Amino acid sequence: MTIITILSVTFTLFFFSKQLVNALLHMDLLRFDVRKRLMFGVVYGVCGILIMFFGVPVSDHGIIDFRYFFIIIAAYYGGLHASILASVLIAGGRALLFGGLNEAAITAGAFILLLGVLSGIIFAYKRFGGYWAKWMVSLLVLMALLYGNSWFTYGLVWSSSRYKFLFPPMLASGLIVAYCVRYLTQRDELFQQKDQEATTDFLTQLANVRAFDAAFNRLFIQAESGKEPLALLFLDIDYFKKINDTYGHPAGDAVLRELAAIVRRTVRAEDVASRYGGEEFSILLPNCSPSGAYALAENLRSKIENCQIAVNDKQTVGVTVSIGIACYPEVEQEFLIDYADQALYQAKLSGRNKTILWRS
User: Fold this and answer.
1) Cis link prior to 329 (omega < 30° from 0)?
2) CB 278 within 8 A of CB 291
3) Same-domain status, 229 and 302
4) Where are the alpha helices (DSSP H) in 157-208?
5) Of the N and C termini of the chain, which has fewer Cβ atoms inside 10 Å?
6) C-beta of residue 207 within 8 angstroms of C-beta of residue 273
7) To the nearest 5 percent, what fractions of the chain are helix, strand and coil?
8) Mind telling me the catalytic residues?
9) Quick one: which H or E segment has residue 326?
10) Backbone angles phi, psi at 293, to 5 degrees
11) Residue at a domain's end among 152, 171, 197
12) pLDDT at residue 276 above 60?
């Protein structure tokens, strides 16, 4: 097994584990930061165990492999918690799968755990510099620990140890792995940014019409299959044109941003709020009864009515909104948007600053 082969295996493991991590990050179970960090530790700890099956023989004193790189990767993504967990898993895997719990395994486990602690500290604190500086420091720590382990376990001195010939290619491999990690991370961040821009309204940071359409179809299928209610709210700012004409379009933008913030604070975590166009907003309420949707809409309308929004350094303005609601299964899917819009129109015609629930 050559360094190039094991490096290729490392890239393969990291690539597929990165896809797994990306999928797991979209799960509600990983919304909390601690769970995310532990997930990084588990995933890259397992990768470290798998890579041990592709080790490079070093004289008569065992093998050397790239398990350590996955500890550093865990430290980069998840900090100290992730790197310690990854090192514990790798040390345990080394003892269970490669020789049992003997003196060599205990010593190697101690050095692996020490690498997890030190690399986690290095990536946790800004004083160690930027990305490349932290990787270089972590790799130098790794090199020192590898030699310390060979000296402590086998009594090998630097001049007679084959490890000294492996350190330069290992250091180079570590930098290549660091580049690969950086590249894939930046690629994913760019993809997420473009995806967010494609589905997010720039001004209000709510979902845009494209995202609303996708959410509407997804939530209706969910409601239909689970026999659950689905409510749709349309919200429109009353006399919004007057605000633009009186205070200017920047003031209108400020009103839209503040209303979007109020909407975000009022709706539930599972609700989907979007800017439907101009001064009109939409809110999808999964598993919400007509009475529940009306109560939420009235709460939202009241908060907006009682809010004074700063439109410049000296002036504030009060606004009101009209809201129309339609609910499934009282209204069939193909009429849900149309009837919510008609309910909004009735709220406007009956004096504005009202909530109207469509009743067939």
Assistant:
1) yes
2) no
3) yes
4) 163-199
5) C
6) yes
7) 70, 10, 20
8) 279
9) strand 321-328
10) -65, -40
11) 197
12) yes
CATH (domain of 61): 1.10.1760.20
Range name among 11-25, 51-65, 235-249, 263-277 with the lowest pLDDT average = 51-65
* Residue 232 token pair: 């749709």
CA atoms within 13 A on the CB side of 22: 13
Strands, E assignment, 219-312? 230-237, 272-277, 280-286, 308-310
Whole-number percent of the chain with pLDDT over 70 = 90
235 φ, ψ (degrees, to nearest 5): -125, 130
What one-letter code names the amino acid at 303?
K
Structural domain of 146: 3-197
* pLDDT tens profile 150-202: 766 655 544 555 556 677 888 888 999 999 999 988 988 888 778 777 788 98
**Helix or strand run (H / E) with residue 323:** strand 321-328
The predicted pLDDT at position 154 comes to 58
Distance CA 161, CA 79 (A): 33
Kindly state the average pLDDT of the residues 302-324: 92
Q: Which two tokens stand for residue 310?
A: 């700063």
> How many other C-beta atoms are found inside a 10 Å radius of the C-beta of residue 151?
14
For CA atoms 14, 19, 24, 26, give the dihedral sign. Answer: positive
State residue 271's pLDDT score: 95
Residues 215 and 320 in one domain: yes
The position carrying tokens 């939409």 is 282
What distance lies between CA 30 and its chain's CA centroid? 9
Residue type, 330: E
Amino acid at 275: R
Residue 93, number of CB atoms within 10 A of its CB: 19
The CA–CA distances, whole Å, from 24 to 35, 42, 48, 65 equal 11, 12, 19, 27
Question: Domain total for the chain?
Answer: 2
The closest alpha carbon to 201, from 261, 137, 144, 249, belongs to: 261
Report the CATH number at residue 294. 3.30.70.270
Strands 355-357 and 321-328: parallel
What average pLDDT does the chain have? 87
Angle at 105 between CA 101 and CA 110, to 5 degrees: 120
Q: Which amino acid is at 64?
A: I
Q: How many residues in total does the chain contain?
A: 360
